[in-house]
């Protein structure tokens, strides 16, 4: 095998590992409305964060190939708790409440925001936060506030651009480059930026592979 073929073979292996990881069992564990209700820490944990209605629950369903594992809605703020899922006994996946605008009372939004920050600061087995950003709009100030908190807490995060089916190829390339520039000086940002769509599954295999790589690095794959 030539040196040029080695990275391709590694990528193919990770794609297959990711496919197998998410092709297995995926089970709901618990919902936590507050920190005392969080389930015990176990193994490697990843979390999906993002603005309300950015497509977190839809992407969780696309990853696992299950349409109803995570509840989806066109109404911002439908996910109101931290929802924990066991992925094949190897990984815990957390679907977080959306931050920012939500069609509910302001006090409830503030409670969700506090829950998110408390969870991110105190979860020792949290390996990475996948920050979902709507590719049509890019990073907003409310997103960068969350990134500031992750940098401060030294929690690794990776940006995933959602709803990529809504953009032209040139628009996607421009959005990725602009996002890369914004993240270049952030210490906790993982350098690879993914573009996904829950509608046509673009980027979903690559996201699975990214999770598989993370588990392999942690000796959990």
TrEMBL record:
Protein's recorded name: Probable GTP-binding protein EngB
Sequence similarity: Belongs to the TRAFAC class TrmE-Era-EngA-EngB-Septin-like GTPase superfamily. EngB GTPase family.
Gene3D superfamilies membership: P-loop containing nucleotide triphosphate hydrolases (3.40.50.300)
Function text: Necessary for normal cell division and for the maintenance of normal septation.
EngB-type G domain residues: 42-217
Pfam families in the record: MMR_HSR1
SUPFAM superfamilies noted in UniProt: P-loop containing nucleoside triphosphate hydrolases (SSF52540)
Domain of life: Bacteria
Assigned keywords, A-Z: Cell cycle, Cell division, GTP-binding, Magnesium, Metal-binding, Nucleotide-binding, Septation
Annotated organism of origin: Methylobacterium adhaesivum
Keyword Metal-binding: yes
Cofactor (UniProt): Mg(2+)
